[in-house]
Amino acid sequence: MKKYWGHIVDVFHREVFDGEIVVEEGRIKQVKRCELPDNGKAWPYLMPGFIDSHVHIESSMIAPCEFAYMAASHGTIGVVADPHEIGNVLGIEGVDYMIESGKNATFNFCFAAPSCVPCCPPDIETSGAVIDAAGVEQLMARDDIGVLGEMMNFPGVLNGDPEVMRKIHAALKHGKPIDGHAPGLTGSDRERYALTGISTDHECTTVEEGRACISAGMKVIIREGSAAKDFDKLCPLIGESPNMVMFCTDDCHPDDLVRGHINMMVRRALAKGYDLWNILLAASINAQRHYGLDWGMLQEGDAANFIAVDALNTHFRVLQTVIKGVEVFDCNASFGSVRQYHVHSLENHATFFPNRFEAKPITEEDISLDVSKLQTLHVMLATDGSLYTGHDAIKVRYNLFDGSRYPWGEVQKMVVLNRYQPDARPVVGLVRGFNLTHGAIAASVAHDCHNIVAIGANDEYLVKALNRVIEMKGGQVAVADDEMTDLALPIAGLMSPLSGHEVAYRCLQLCEMARRAGCPMHAPFITMSFLCLPVIPELKITDKHLWDSKNMKVVVG
Amino acid sequence: MKKYWGHIVDVFHREVFDGEIVVEEGRIKQVKRCELPDNGKAWPYLMPGFIDSHVHIESSMIAPCEFAYMAASHGTIGVVADPHEIGNVLGIEGVDYMIESGKNATFNFCFAAPSCVPCCPPDIETSGAVIDAAGVEQLMARDDIGVLGEMMNFPGVLNGDPEVMRKIHAALKHGKPIDGHAPGLTGSDRERYALTGISTDHECTTVEEGRACISAGMKVIIREGSAAKDFDKLCPLIGESPNMVMFCTDDCHPDDLVRGHINMMVRRALAKGYDLWNILLAASINAQRHYGLDWGMLQEGDAANFIAVDALNTHFRVLQTVIKGVEVFDCNASFGSVRQYHVHSLENHATFFPNRFEAKPITEEDISLDVSKLQTLHVMLATDGSLYTGHDAIKVRYNLFDGSRYPWGEVQKMVVLNRYQPDARPVVGLVRGFNLTHGAIAASVAHDCHNIVAIGANDEYLVKALNRVIEMKGGQVAVADDEMTDLALPIAGLMSPLSGHEVAYRCLQLCEMARRAGCPMHAPFITMSFLCLPVIPELKITDKHLWDSKNMKVVVG
Q1: What is the rounded distance in angstroms from the CA atom of residue B442 to the CA atom of residue B524?
Q2: Is A473 left (phi over 0), alpha (psi -120 to 50) or beta?
Q3: The pairing of beta strand B245-248 with beta strand B219-223
Q4: Separation of alpha carbons A549 and A540, rounded Å
Q5: Is A230 in contact with A245 (CB distance < 8 Å)?
Q6: How far apart are CA B320 and CA B313, in angstroms?
Q7: Which burial class, exposed, middle or buried, applies to A331 when counting CB atoms under 10 A from its CB (0-12, 13-18, 19+)?
Q8: What is the pTM of this model?
Q9: CB B10 within 8 A of CB B46
């Protein structure tokens, strides 16, 4: 039995009162009004903890048990996690890994069954696995799966694609909610999308879109992550429809997660003057109601998930996070972090980490490209931090390109190599915007199929970076002149088993090295990782070919 | 039994040859010449690991077992560690803690008995402990103490101070080396200092001083740390007297240790074109000879301490670190870092972490200062990253100071509070250079007695920052407007039990917050930590008074 004193923030009765919370066996045994003794310092505010209502933990590049530690230090007591990325690599085996890893932490997870694995037909790009309707049915029946993950294939929903509808029906059958993903969908299409039972969307980027969503009966999950930042545009919904909004990050990269999580959205909402009760609905309670989670709101009998903060203003600090009755974070305390000296060498990686990685080292010859034989150069125009690319089609004969002299100004080679088959041939494309004048970057994180990608100044740098990724069986690499830095991602080629802070630090070092190689981008690896995503306009590249994602067709040079 | 193939760098025979190293039970069983099979990739170079010949681990703000992990990832296989800082807080109990913590890591430690605890008489400042001659005698007799730590009291040596000589004789009696510390000592003084048996100096800052040291028979430990950077000036000694130089960091702060260690000095020495064999003498072998360490140089029968690197040029990367036959670091591998969810709350800190911290929260009244009552304002002039301060004496009557209106331009209050006694009164001084216009910083790391220090824009910020340090029983705090960030240092008020990367990240965040408060310094906490060191000119402040360290006297306003 443990007692907590403070100003109790009771969301249910919309009241703050002084009192005592008695915790026993992971639940709140008693909430008692009482005077707080004067012990010479300020008492904390005790309130429900935060929930990230939609997150791909893989983007944090750390295992779920480590993600839990990092998130809890910012007052997050649970997440709705969609293992979509690892699903594309390992299928249901990947989903199982995430659930198992999560069990190593004292934390609350609600896992989704990824609904769109892969998100593209296999003739466009190669994924590591498929979770078909039968697989989704199997997952939805499980107790450890709480929701059907974001249904990205919204054309499939609107067209009543039988495979898609089977997945939706599997969720409905088991009484589990279905998350949506339908950027830009309005009018009757939006309403039909909602009618199928899909009940959330985190892809709204304007307040009008958000209102359309809500009026169609869907909840809006306001997203403020590492890539997409929608909070400023969508926050009016907190005041307008307080029961219909939630908060999420979607993707939270390691160097952001070390700094904050949902608490940052709560701070910003407080700064904008929204009602505390409405903010707590969005940051915690609505997600519990929507997903049927028993994570508690400080009432007697509730699960003992709550946080202590020092103030109820925009500068509040999380002092303590209690999950299932365990103090998993305390700002005055220190976690005994015991490092075990098990080294998992390349040979026994497979024993510890699930992965699918068959690519073999390549040579400069494998990625040669004689542009003089091409009629048109198709160049992707990349913008720092953006998922969208431009498409520059340059007629070779009208230009002064000397095919043998690579690189050509700011146009650089981008290589994609299928990582799931040992004998695949790399695909070579062209990209502008990275300006890696004397180095290269390479990675095995490339949405959504996570093949191996690289961009570089010349073939030597490219091969060096690519082969390092292959040697590590997944990871991120930056080469600048004779220097190289890397981060191994042995868990599915997506995540590291290291601590969140170590991963964050190495990400900083990778970006530094890319800058030393000439790249002016703030987030070169994130930008590169989206150049393969064939569902986003305009020109993309996969392990199979250049893809015109505006006109949905293969590009031939 | 484990085998390692590669290009073997044999320092003893000054030869690189291809072969195989067989390791068994922590020692090198066999070194065999053989051809390296073509396995499609480059074989590594196998060579002796690096040694930091003089380091205060406390400056890395992490426990010795975690320091070992961080250092090993940069190819360091052992260190000569002087627990001088924790000695000033906890005496021999602190030394014992460092040794015990070190045992949790697979690493090589040679611990020194701190020779100057405290380094100042108790009427100048209050330390937490004393290690007198009897204490040093007791330490020198122990098997786990290998050296007498840097003898800073060089006037005492030259004057034949009996207490000092007793300490030196204790080391000589047990056949253990004595480290020196004598900045600027030349001529016959240098020779007399060396004649006592003191055999190293890491305080040389010019090559002439280094040569004087060597000609007096002392070895020069070239220092390139976070604070002092002497490599560029002293590196000619590597070529001139290759048997007489070693490498050290002295103080290596967490945000530097995450990036590199002795490997960075080796890289720079290679870039300058020094002979590989001489560099390896400085980086590893000389320390082993000097301190009588059996840490090995890749000969049959040696301890299996070595590293694998990818090249023998300035861009080399450490691929693997083997210590006592254990692969403690592998760039292709991943350490299974298991985080244990023990939270050590304030109440049970003492069970886990040794500390001495009795200070009680203070009020604004405690640090009030009415300058109108003073005749002269004595202001410390601080410079970013420097140990030295200027001394500005301002006649109050000639100035337009309004005593009640604090702050006065760039002159800010600095507070020092004795942390070892519950009833101590804070000492208030003035400092220029921090420019914390809307915030404060505070810390319990303050050389050498590690009392509590703070600098801030007004009394409210100062009290907030100071009381947070007191609440944590040690740590670093930065306040900017309504925001606060902190790092708890429950181990003697000097170190954190968190991981090196987490501590490094929090240090970055502390510096960011100080910048947000207006401070233009790159390293405000390091600079502040030296404002108390009464042995360095010109004006300093202790928990007892302002101290004119040029004229060795108390300053009265």
Answers
A1: 10
A2: left
A3: parallel
A4: 7
A5: no
A6: 17
A7: middle
A8: 0.91
A9: no
Q: Which two tokens stand for residue B401?
A: 């100071």
Complex-level ipTM: 0.86
Tell me whether A352 touches chain B (CB under 8 Å).
yes
- Measured between CB atoms, does A67 come within 8 Å of chain B? no
Among chain B residues, CA nearest to A471: B332
CB proximity A351 to B under 8 Å: no
Asked whether the beta carbons of residue B329 and residue A343 sit closer than 8 angstroms, the reply is yes
Phi-psi region at B204: left, alpha or beta (left = phi > 0; alpha = psi -120 to 50): beta
Q: Does A404 touch chain B (CB under 8 A)?
A: no
Torsion angle of C-alpha atoms A85, A88, A90, A96, degrees rounded to 10: 50
Secondary structure of residue A252 in the 3-state scheme? coil
CB-based burial label for B397 (10 Å; 0-12, 13-18, 19+): exposed
DSSP assignment string, B348-395: GHHHHS----------GGGG---GGG-SEEEEEEE-TT-S-EEEEEEE
Classify B83 as helix, strand or coil. coil
Give the residues across from B306 on adjacent strands.
B48, B322
Q: 294-323 in A: which are within 8 Å (CB) of B?
A: 313-315, 317
> How far is A140 from A115, CA to CA, in rounded Å?
10
Spatial strand order of the sheet with A245-248 comes to: A50-55, A76-81, A108-113, A147-151, A178-180, A198-201, A219-223, A245-248
Q: Which amino acid is at A70?
A: M
CB contact under 8 A, B499 and A472: no
Distance CA B557, CA B547 (A): 11
Q: What residues 98-117 of chain A have any CB closer than 8 A to a CB of chain B?
A: 105-106
CB burial of A262-295 (b: ≥16 within 10 Å; e: otherwise) equals bbbbbbbbbeeebebebbbbbbbbbbbebbebeb
d(Cα A59, Cα A300) in Å, to the nearest integer? 36
Task: Enumerate the residues of chain A whose CB falls inside 8 A of the CB of residue B258.
Answer: 505
User: What is the pLDDT tens value at each position of chain A, 557 positions in all?
Assistant: 999 999 999 999 999 999 999 999 999 999 999 999 988 778 999 999 999 999 999 999 999 988 998 999 999 999 999 999 999 999 999 999 999 989 988 999 999 999 999 988 888 999 999 999 999 999 999 999 999 999 999 999 999 999 999 999 999 999 999 999 999 888 899 999 999 999 999 999 999 999 999 999 999 999 999 988 999 999 999 999 999 999 999 999 999 999 999 999 999 999 999 999 999 999 999 999 999 999 999 999 999 999 999 999 999 999 999 999 998 888 876 654 444 433 444 455 556 789 999 999 999 999 998 777 778 889 999 998 788 888 988 876 555 445 545 556 789 999 999 999 999 999 999 999 999 999 999 999 999 999 999 999 999 999 999 999 999 999 999 999 999 999 999 999 999 988 899 899 999 999 999 999 999 999 999 999 999 998 888 899 999 999 998 888 999 86
Indicate the angle between helix axes A207-215 and A187-195, nearest 10 degrees. 50
